[in-house]
Amino acid sequence: MRTQSVWLVLVLLTLGLTLLSCIEADENDPNAAVGRKDMYIVVFEQMPIVTYNGKIVGLRGTAKYFSEHWRKSHKRAHVSELVRKYKAYLIKEQDAILEKFFGHDLCEKLYRYTHLVNGVAIALTAEEAVRLANFPGVERVQKSYKVYKSTVHTPEYLGLPKGVWAQMGGPAGAGENMIIGIVDTGIDPTHPSFAAGGLKPYGPLKKFRGSCDVATEFPRGSCNGKIIGARYFAAAAKKDGAFNASLHFASPLDGDGHGSHTASTAAGNYGVPVVMNGFHFGNASGIAPRARIAVYKALYRFIGGSIPDVIAACDQAVADGVDILSLSLGPNSPPGGSTSTFLNVLDIALLNAVKANVLVVQAAGNGGPYAKTVTSFSPWVLSVAAGQDDRTFPNTLTLGDKRIIRGTGIAPPTAGVPLYPMILAQDAVAGKGDPALSPSDCQSPQLYNKALVRGKILICTYSFDYVFGGSTMQQLEKTIKTLGAAGVAMVVDSDTSGGKFEPIPLSIPAIVFPNSVDSQTVLDYYNTYTKKDRTGKVLTWGATATIGNGQIVTYTKAVQQVALFSSRGPDVKDFNFDEADVLKPNVMAPGYLIWGAWTPIGTDNPAFAGQKFAMISGTSMATPHVAGLAAMLKAKYPTWSPAALASAMVTTADVTDRQGRPLQAQQPSPNSTPFLQAATPFDMGGGALNINAAMNPGLIFEAGHLDYVKFLCSLATTKEVLGATKTACPVRIGVATDLNIPSITFANLVGTKLVPRTVTNVAPLGETYTITIRNPGDFVVTANPAVFTIGVGLRNKQTIAFTVRATKVSQAFSFGMITMKGSLGHTVRIPVSVVNKRLK
């Protein structure tokens, strides 16, 4: 047992984790708890570092200075000594409480949390968890839960080269000295998107206190200045028995691809050539190409991540001194274990990150288009929806009768000018191969007569097996190459399966027809020119065609649509899915078919196995766009709070296209083309990210830690809030809608309510604003004053009293918009979302 203990301590010290003075009791120990042990996070009553107010015996000599200066100067050396002392105190108290509870120190602490949360991750039986939750010195015990992973063109699409980048000295200055913390699946340090060479090398940053975990597959030098730090957190995954070192890598190396992709989207180098299958698809750039990347690996391929690992990663990131925290992750549903989604242990940790002046950007989730699927809950977190931008990948099939059928497919054309014979996969079957495979899917070359297929365009089917089964485009590509076919044309067996198709780059001539109408046109043409005998045997093939070049990308110059998969509001306040008076998501950014860095060993998407770049979709891809902009905003406005940074992006977002028409949201349809309807705030939050406008917002909505505490006090008991935030509720609590955020949401408006909002002028000049309001038929919003002049300096704040009055009973949300137009050209928007379940 002694040897095992020493080995465990050495391993954990090697990993750089602040862990373990004890080990878990042996199952045969009569003093050990009986029953199955699961992972729990134990939160203690004492304050974590970022909320410490100095009221601890033995630390009074430095407490006042610490509490006054932590928020603004916690990166300074003289404060670091205070942090060290208080951290040592917390660890001592943690051990004392657990030793009293167990009667011994035979407990394995997977993690100690000290910065954002004062707690430990520990294995407990259900009975132990109940008893420990009521033990003196313990605030709460929450069971672990799982979280899951929730660009070539987007810099140009978002107007960066001639806009923000130009203002910052070009890509070489965009995001200078900013650090984006990426909590994800790790990073590929050899990727050119993260190279540190060039004309302007990366020097050290004194404000960053992080380190770099070194391993055989992540050698010294992997943290090169561009990658300023890299850690990995897998204690919980190991405890679950889900971690496999050969598969998941005990290092920051990305074995999945997802982490490298998000990191490159946020802050990848400028102008990195994207080459796949020998074709140059353009040059990739991160949104803030000069920002630094700090990597915190807490998600793993195939298994996702456990909340103790994720919180440890966030805790370390804030302690290290990151400026922005980017989380392309979230649970599948509201976590249990608390009376409120806002009080779950991750959201409280993120609240404390905000208290430490770190903006948290989180993916809204991929559960759309259905309501209440957002998995980023709290108003102190900026939640990001995914939009589909204006890039399309059209292709054509020219038939022998000169008709042109439009499809899609990022693939090269058939060679030369002549038409090629066409053959249906079922008509080429040779009677060999796996009988479990459908011939129409074209997954097994052995099924077909090679002599018949060679030199022809093979017609295959994009069936449900491609969506839910084992059929892949990669295997299709191998089949075509093995058979020597001239190319492949894919029809669909239903509009539903066609609607699931996402273009991926192929090295063979290929085209896909995602809808049944075009698919049937191709099949009808083939059948018309193919003669068969009475048994169905083909006598002659007469159908011919040629496949166009699908590698030529088309840009429609249209504004974004809310992607079908993007999670929708309303936000929920508990795991019973009761609606909250909070708007989610908050803003939308491009998240559909985004090019980004990949690792050749990545497994997140088999379509890009062995590749250095991938083009994938999700709110995970939208989130780093916002994180990159946040880094540039903070570089320009270093004193702004997280709330101010978020406000600038939300209030300046686009809600209409270039012709003034409302933005659209994709909805399910019976065919491959989604229905489009006017997007609501529950689809896109404030709207589509407008980076150039966000850099000059005019007005911002300010909120701080105490404001968020008051918000929590309006929803939970004073004891719950004190335990979670270590901050007492004020005498006058108010209501949730008092929180000074750039939106107004009532999940159940009764009668008339007053909603105060205070704006702060961040422009260099004073300005006169006129408020206009678009009201639906269910409620009316009025503003007092409706016109105001706001100055600079001490006169740069204005409080507006909005009155929201129910006019008609409704069981569904209605939406309005408050617009403040400034005399110097600024426009500030506040979305309004209201349900009136009764009038009085």
Compute the separation of the termini in Å. Answer: 68 Å
What is the total tally of β strands?
Answer: 41
Instruction: Enumerate how many helices there are, as a single number.
Output: 22
Helix content: 10-25%
| Rg value | 29 Å
Average pLDDT: 85
CATH topology of the largest domain: Rossmann fold
CATH architecture of the largest domain: 3-Layer(aba) Sandwich
User: Hey, roughly how much beta strand do the residues contain?
Assistant: 15-25%
Low-pLDDT ranges: 1-34, 57-78
Largest sheet: 10 strands, mixed
Domains (count) = 5
How does the overall form come out from the CA principal axes? globular
- Secondary structural class: alpha/beta
Q: Report the CATH C-level class of the largest domain.
A: Alpha Beta
The CATH homologous superfamily name of the largest domain equals Peptidase S8/S53 domain
Describe this structure as you would to a colleague.
With 840 residues, this protein is α/β, with parallel strands linked by helices. The strands form ten sheets. Strands 6, 7, 10, 12, 14, 15, 27, 28, 31 and 32 form a ten-stranded mixed sheet that branches. The radius of gyration is 29 Å and the shape is globular. Mean pLDDT is 85; it is low at 1-34 and 57-78.
Task: Put the structure in a nutshell.
This protein is 24% helix and 25% strand. The protein is an alpha/beta fold.
What tags apply to this protein structure?
Glucose Oxidase, domain 1; 24% helix; 10-stranded mixed beta sheet; disordered N terminus; 22 helices; Alpha-Beta Plaits; alpha/beta; 5 domains; 840 residues; Rossmann fold
